[in-house]
Amino acid sequence: MSESNIEVDKKDDHLQSSITDQAPEEPEPKVPQMKESKMKETQTTKIETEEWEREHSSTSSFCPPQGTVNKTITDGVTLIVLWILLWALIGQEVLPGGNLFGLVVIFYSAFLGGKIIEVIRIPVVPPLPPLLGMLLAGFTIRNVPILYKFVHIPTSWSSALRNTALTIILIRAGLGLDPQALKHLKGVCLRLSFGPCLLEACSAALFSHFIMNFPWQWGFLLGFVLGAVSPAVVVPNMLLLQENGYGVEKGIPTLLVAASSMDDIVAITGFNTFLSIVFSSGSVISNILSSLRDVLIGVLVGVVMGIFVQYFPSRDQERLTQRRAFLVLSMCVSAVLGCQHIGLHGSGGLVTLVLSFMAAKRWAEEKVGVQKLVANTWNIFQPLLFGLVGTEVSVESLESKTIGMCIATLCLALLVRILATFVLMSFANFRFMEKVFIALSWIPKATVQAVLGPLALETARVMAPHLEGYSRNVMTVAFLAILITAPNGALIIGILGPKVLDHSEETFPLKVELSNFHN
């Protein structure tokens, strides 16, 4: 090798060694050190937390209070501050004897009554519906003179609240209807929706005419008050059976849930028709024609408003669910109260029903969020509704003879309903005991009766005071119907269902969306 080559190699080696010396050293991996430091920090924080808890364990529940005690004190102070603010703004209305004070007393008493019924659990017995406690709370206030002398609710207030509650019921019925489920169930659902309600209404008219000496138009009005089944009782119990796999193979829970909304619609429509006939001075033919006019107007306005809410608000807007729920609620309440104000008593409910049904059909699965918000609104109006119904029933004004006639009329009409339901289900593919179960499950009454019974009484007070006796008897029958059929219906469904329905290990979701329909 030549000297020049040796010199080049030495220069290369020297260059590489200098580069190697100048290159920064690679840092050692610090992942284990980071994990160790985090573990040390976590252990230190845990130790500090334990030391703080030990130091404050003796006073943690008292100074300052935590958990439920803290929440109760916070809510109480908030209510007191709000009450003081209202007192400064509107004065005597929030003091004992004022209208707002009475409304607050009824609301919280009914709310507490419902919670007490929820807490009461008897082994092997299904839970009772909370609305029973709400009803009894209002009844107690009405019949305890010390309490009732401080509770005064204007007729206009109670009427507006009941109409709003009816609107929410109809919105939930419209949103709960699923065209696909109704198409799947076909004739059996229609028979269960229309048949028992119409036959019970006709039989109640017949029995009340001969037992209670009701005129025929008042008898049919009473019949349609009684004709509605209560989704507030039927639906949660059907959901419970569905979750446990009872009757799912033949679709019995789905059938009863889907038909309960349609049943209410038939009863409310019939009631509005006969309410117009009873309190109108024209001939029967003119009253029927005016009722048909109200129906036509209600359907047309409902279609127009339903098309509007299908596209407004648009899908690109923020808080879409909240906007939709607020728009539907405000439009439907305005339609019902507005129709009542201008004399179209049968139109507002149909507007609400058609509007909500068309909106739900367009929104498809997106309607679940709207249903939840509407259900939350119902949680506010439910105690008010049943509390106000309870305050309308006075023990002093009831006679034993009147109570006996009311119970006899109610029981006979219920018997006809049970037999009619059994016969109508005989054309479907159900076993004997399944038909018995469906017939007995179709008797609970609550929500619609709580709205329609007082509505007839208030209408008579305003338009025809000489008819108040009939309307008060209608109110009494509605009250007794809720008191008797709601708890017994819930018990029958809960006890009889697991014994007579076929059990399936695999459960299926209901065909009808029923978000929070149990309140």
From TrEMBL:
The gene is Slc9b1. Belongs to the monovalent cation:proton antiporter 1 (CPA1) transporter (TC 2.A.36) family. Residues 27-57 have a biased composition (Basic and acidic residues). Keywords: Membrane, Transmembrane, Transmembrane helix. InterPro entries: Cation/H_exchanger_TM (IPR006153), CPA1_transporter (IPR051843). Residues 1-63 are annotated as: Disordered. It is a multi-pass membrane protein. This is Solute carrier family 9 member B1. Residues 123-487 form the Cation/H+ exchanger transmembrane domain. It is found in: Membrane. The chain crosses the membrane at residues 72-90, 96-117, 129-148, 218-240, 265-289, 295-313, 325-344, 402-424, 436-457, 477-496. Pfam families: Na_H_Exchanger. The keyword Transmembrane helix applies. PANTHER family: PTHR31102, SLC9B1-LIKE PROTEIN SLC9B1P1-RELATED.
